[in-house]
Amino acid sequence: MNDAYLNFVNSPFGARLAGSLGLPKPEVLRRYHADRPEFEGLVAVGAGPQPRILDALAGMIARTGMTGVAHESAGLWIALAHRHGLMTGRFEPVERGSTQGRMSALLFDATGIEDVTQFDSLYAFFHDALRSLGKCGRIVVFGRPPQGCANPRQWTAQRALEGFTRSLGKEARRGITSNLIYVAPGAEALAETTVRFLLSPRSAYVSGLAVHIDTVTRALPDFDWKRPLAGRRALVTGAARGIGASIAGVLAAEGAHVIGVDIPSAKDALDHTMRELNGTPLAFDIAAPETPAQLAAALDENGIDIIVHNAGITKDKTIAKMTETAWHSVIDINLAAQERIDDALLEAGTLRHGGRIIGVSSISGIAGNPGQSNYATSKAGVIGRVQGMASLLGERQITINAVAPGFIETQMTAKIPFAIREAGRRMNSMSQGGQPVDVAQTIAWLAHPGSAGVTGQVVRVCGQSLIGA
Amino acid sequence: MNDAYLNFVNSPFGARLAGSLGLPKPEVLRRYHADRPEFEGLVAVGAGPQPRILDALAGMIARTGMTGVAHESAGLWIALAHRHGLMTGRFEPVERGSTQGRMSALLFDATGIEDVTQFDSLYAFFHDALRSLGKCGRIVVFGRPPQGCANPRQWTAQRALEGFTRSLGKEARRGITSNLIYVAPGAEALAETTVRFLLSPRSAYVSGLAVHIDTVTRALPDFDWKRPLAGRRALVTGAARGIGASIAGVLAAEGAHVIGVDIPSAKDALDHTMRELNGTPLAFDIAAPETPAQLAAALDENGIDIIVHNAGITKDKTIAKMTETAWHSVIDINLAAQERIDDALLEAGTLRHGGRIIGVSSISGIAGNPGQSNYATSKAGVIGRVQGMASLLGERQITINAVAPGFIETQMTAKIPFAIREAGRRMNSMSQGGQPVDVAQTIAWLAHPGSAGVTGQVVRVCGQSLIGA
Prior knowledge:
Two copies of one chain form a homodimer.
Chain A: H1 2-10, H2 12-21, E1 42-47, H3 54-64, E2 67-70, H4 76-83, E3 88-90, E4 103-109, H5 120-129, E5 133-143, H6 152-172, E6 177-183, H7 192-199, E7 210-213, E8 233-237, H8 242-253, E9 257-262, H9 267-276, E10 280-283, H10 291-299, E11 304-309, H11 324-347, E12 351-360, H12 363-367, H13 373-394, E13 399-405, H14 411-414, H15 418-426, H16 436-447, E14 458-461
Parallel strand pairs in A: 1-2, 1-4, 2-3, 4-5, 5-6, 6-7, 8-9, 8-11, 9-10, 11-12, 12-13, 13-14
Helix pairs in contact in A: 1-2, 3-4, 8-16, 10-11, 11-13
Domain Ketoreductase (chains A, B): 232-411
Organism (chains A, B): Paraburkholderia saeva
Pfam families (chains A, B): adh_short_C2 (PF13561)
């Protein structure tokens, strides 16, 4: 397999095709480890006119322990940094071949931009600073949600930022991620979990996002940044193995008590996974009609704070060859079971006020996929659930979001035919597949009590896959 | 070039990679010609429970002159077809190798689906019928706009249709397009221009869409299906050559008087193009500050009904190498000039009540593109304009939409380096680049007086490109 790839990218035609698809030189991505510093190094800060989030940002950067340096476009930063007790200085470009440390992140506050004629500092900052960003560095641009803008010109300028950050993600390479956070006016303090996630090695495989942070009607609960899920109970379906086990592991590491669900035939693996995490195994078939009521009964006494609908199956065939059973079982397990379980847990009040629902969608659900009409339908339906339920659940301060994994290295993807697997691995800004932990860490961010401003959203975990709609 | 491609797809590794990317066997797409029938052959009709658009659809199909046959899921069709004086019968699958004519289109009415447990007939219809669809056939699924659904389950089911139609588009191949039309309750009659466009060879390179048809507050004007733009005046920027000249040509063929704008240095080409169309050339530099007022003055006497913002430039470089001039000129010409011109024409009342604004965006504006941070920003901004202005303009019954071309064969794309060009051409469900006329026909649909229910939308013209966000 490696030889075929190597031979191909070293042939004249292959080298040209590979170059254009971004196949070569995948970077070893830096990922989160509990025994290594999560945040370190220098952050360069730039800003457009009237930057509205710089003050909150200075506080957030101070709490991470990183040092912020100000590009000339962000003169205000120095004073704000001093006020937050943050080390600071002027941004100086890092020369090629310099021994000086490169930047860990580039942050740009575009919240005050009201018109596309005000983009000059956006260009100037990234023109000056992008080459100074180190491997696996982070680009985060802050804007205002377009649909909340006062007039079409502001809306246009804010929406234009999506094209900008996605282009930077595609040209930066070297394991660098590029994301956009739209922070609603008044929601600045709610952005902190999102800023931290996107600056952290936890978001190694998350690039090209436009995350919206909205205001919420209640104050955030207190939490411990080191163990934000302490005291919380998380239900994870399909938890015995693979991505589900990784989700369970990350949520447990963040302090949650995990209740892992999987089918009775996976009971041994489930018991093993849960034992390692001090979790609770529940061997239920989520497709069984009696399961929602049984789950509600099993969870009733202590309630639950987080539901992760991870369980899912594939039964790929073109529609002409697909059996009715293959169609029905994929829709039922991947989508209808989520509906039945959530309805039961919400009706019984088992999912607590301030809870979190996270569905697992897929790039296939966004873009469709040949031979996966059943799977893509179910995963597009997961997107529909998130969009359709967010405002209703908001009344109980419950958020609902989905993650949409791209190509993730699992036992399932290991069985994909070579060429499709290889294409899926390379056709993204990281030139590689993601790891189950990348999905799990993204879910942990959404499950965080501080992520109350993030709801109704679909978060791609795809290394900025080329594939989309 | 062709040899390298042929050699590659015939090598063992190349054949496998090519197969997975959909490189082989591009179909010669059937396109619209005035001297050939636009609609012909058999349409198979399927339906879910309580289909709400079948009645309107029977009328539309009758007016095209096609014949509709009913799948067992759409038993109601026979009676409706009779009422509309439409030839009809029962759908029979076409056997492989049969001399019997294949279907021209498969239509499915999913408007009544309220829950994902009601998808069985969706599966059954396409399972039975997809193989009977001929080359360059059409798939159209009808649903209800998710955001207007009464409850989350209905929203989920309706939203799930996107994953389904996109998957079918990707697996059908053979020049077949697959699109979804979300028709708001009460807007059934407004869907006709969209249904016709998506059934017509005019939409040869349009696949994977989810178009929304909303109700409008005024009755549609009368129009002639043969020359729907008769009596209308259309301003087209960048009209001298390429896509702009094609847009001008199609709008003129539909009956519009075209006022073509291009820069003074392209005056000869512009004059030539306009002479052929009995149009009016206006040699203006859209970037010049005085142009909006001059345009408004030049158009004032007769007003204008349609504005197509087609003029655009590229100045590609990575952000670190991009000059400030390259940044600024691309944003200014591709985006800010549109704002200045529209503002002037709207303020002066030059764009008439019931008018149409169509901006040209790009897949780069959706997904970002390396080396195009300026261009992608400008094209994402075009999306922002459309979304930000639609409700304001709705007060004057003016619609605003954008087209987002993928890889279109032009003099500009002919200069793209080989491998990038080749990848762009093949990485879509048609395995080929589109033609300028594909963009032009899509714009003509949006410019149609009957397309009043389509506004605030971004329509990809990309052969269902893999690339997206």
